[in-house]
């Protein structure tokens, strides 16, 4: 089995996605895993084309692309369209070479155990809802002049399913709270402290606390996340004397606001098998900052 290329937010940027597929091929990765805000917008024609383009490139390169929930992915539609189309590992098959990991999904690759817990809070929720309302008003005006377009724009730019509820998280952890080697999330755990944190806001803390609960329950040795659009490495306590290494990944170049940005900051080659048992405190001190 090959390695896994873990990648940050793509936001539907096809050029960046195709570049990452090429990076995967160069690094002997037969899998690419995007940690949210992938660009799951199949309610729009451009989103469907994006899925088709990525799928075609992945097929040509001999890789499979996976992704989990971001706060800007319309994942309710993925469940509606693909809930009955699962592969042998339980991923939803959006295309033959493009697959989705819903919140709480677990799997094993080459003896390494993984879990996906996507989702986050959108700090620009108000702006997105205002855009939906303006668009709906524009469509209503057009209908007065004979346009047949629907005026319902609800859920086209802001998605109510963007973050798990406390009850949903409790149900998932109650179903299986056993440890994993690698945890993949969109949001950061509350305890991680990157030097540049665009999500250090009170409205973001509840979901960060949920991810922190996942860390303390599953005690992963490694955690990868996106959402902050910046590359950093840190360590946080995972409970019972164990520690987790956190790898934050940057986003596509069009969405980055970070002055020290590089496209190399958007990906990480995870070699399998990955002996990623939760670290002890003494082991965590030997890691680079």
UniProtKB/TrEMBL annotation:
Q: Which domain of life is it from?
A: Bacteria
Name of this chain's protein: Metallophosphoesterase
* The Calcineurin-like phosphoesterase domain, residue ranges: 3-230
Q: Which SUPFAM superfamilies match?
A: Metallo-dependent phosphatases
Question: Which species is this record about?
Answer: Nocardia tengchongensis
